[in-house]
Amino acid sequence: MSVMKRLSMIFKSKANKALDKMEDPRETLDYSYQRQLELLQKVRRGVADVATSRKRVELQITGLEKTAQRYEDQGRKALSVGREDLAREALQRRSNLQAQMADLKVQHDNLQAEEEKLTTASQRLQAKVDAFRTKKETIKATYTAAEAQTRINEAFSGISEEMGDVGLAIQRAEDKTAQMQARAGAIDELLASGALDDFTGTRGDDIQAELDRMGGGMDVELELARMKAELGQGPAPRSAIEQGQQQAQPQPQQHGQSNTQQLRQPGEGA
Amino acid sequence: MIVRIMGEGQVQISAEDIAVLNELDNELEAAIEVGDEPVFRTKLHALLDKVRQVGKALPDDSLEPSELILPPADASIEEVREMLGDQGLIPG
């Protein structure tokens, strides 16, 4: 029984060391009970920490999904205005984001599994601590050294082993959570800087800027055509379209001003 | 005989099942010695599956010491090595 035996020997020797520390076994029982309560608190904190990390990863995944959707919309818009190069760039960025999301989802599943395990361990430990308290009080009430020593050893070994097991589970969960938090922190920074999918530091909004620059003229053109169709004026005259394309250039008389003048009543001040 | 699977709890197994577990345990130890992670993982899971299959779970509030203790299913070969070392990973 190599591995199994050796592991159980390690647990037993730890329990025996703790028992040997105290001369009066009743003191050991009380001391052990206090440690159990402390461990229970630690387990509960551990569960909360893992849950917090899991929620954080969930928020990040949601954030990345929104960004990926934005790139997809930009790709579609770029294609609709004949800019295949921009569309390709947007879809490439979306693809990079999807890889990040897949990675985060694996991390999320790991954290969820850890959380479930710790929750189970916490419930099990709680039941054992309750049982230990009852046994401890019974032993103390009927204590005589010769009679009680065996029962004390059994109860103590049982709970000590459980504590070791749960303590190890907590330690492993803390390690995994710490790694995850470091990673989550890095992703948060990249998300905030907009450089998540482009580690050269180029801002991710240049596609949008380009689309906006092009979109101004195109949108005006489309809107004019729509209005003319509504008014039954047939196809828009060429000069009007050209005027729409030149919206960004300064005009001798601003569009807003001419409207205001048209709305002014005779006798009104300027 | 009481066996603990770390992170899962304790199970009661009968004496006639011990021989099979012994064999699997020896194979697990061999994998740890040569440092073969894939074989280690396979052997560990085989051993744990067998214990779960033949064992009967103890109630949560029992305070029985285990005669045998097994590493958790997701333990790495390195973690098990550390557990078996002088210091061990087990706190306190």
From TrEMBL, chain A:
Residues 226-270 are annotated as: Disordered. Pfam families: PspA_IM30. Residues 243-262 have a biased composition (Low complexity). Belongs to the PspA/Vipp/IM30 family. Residues 54-128 form a coiled coil. It comes from the Bacteria. This is PspA/IM30 family protein. Keywords: Coiled coil. It comes from Nonomuraea helvata.
TrEMBL record, chain B:
It holds the Pfam family PspAA. Residues 1-92 form the PspA-associated domain. InterPro entries: PspA-assoc_dom. This is PspA-associated domain-containing protein. It comes from Nonomuraea helvata. The lineage of its organism: Bacteria, Bacillati, Actinomycetota, Actinomycetes, Streptosporangiales.
